[in-house]
Amino acid sequence: MLGMELLHDRGIVVLEPAGPLAAEDFDRLAAMVDPYLAEAGALRGVLVDTHRFPGWDGLDALLAHGRFVRGHVAHVKRIAIVTASDFAGMIARVAGAVLPPEVRRFEPGERPQALAWLEEEPPA
Which residues are listed as membrane-spanning (predicted)? Predict the structure, then answer.
């Protein structure tokens, strides 16, 4: 289950995994984000707030996650991950090395700082 909210006026998507990610989560996410992207062209950022990496609810969910990322990552300027999880932190470091958006990890309790960072203009 993936909690999600589009902060339309800020151009930020907030994601809160509450259990293993399902393929349907990425369908719902695309249905929420795609109309915004058609209008605005890009998201200022994505904030992922999770205590621990929840994993996927099977291979279909993992593949749906990969398809979603491949289809949307070019339209995201920054990704902030708020977590205490070492595994999620490792994913943030790897993602930052291979994905176009700037990726940064924040500690639990630093959600306001993460949102503020997403709202800043990235360096040119």
Answer: none
Number of compact structural domains in the chain: 1
Residue 92 lies in a domain: yes
What is each CA distance from 80 to 13, 36, 58, 114, in whole angstroms? 10, 19, 25, 6
Flag whether 124 is in a domain. no
Residue 110 in domain: yes
Quick one: DSSP state of residue 22? -
**Three-state secondary structure call for residue 118:** helix
pLDDT in tens, 60-90: 999 999 899 889 989 999 999 998 877 666 6
* Residue 70, domain CATH: 3.30.750
Q: What is the pTM of this model?
A: 0.88
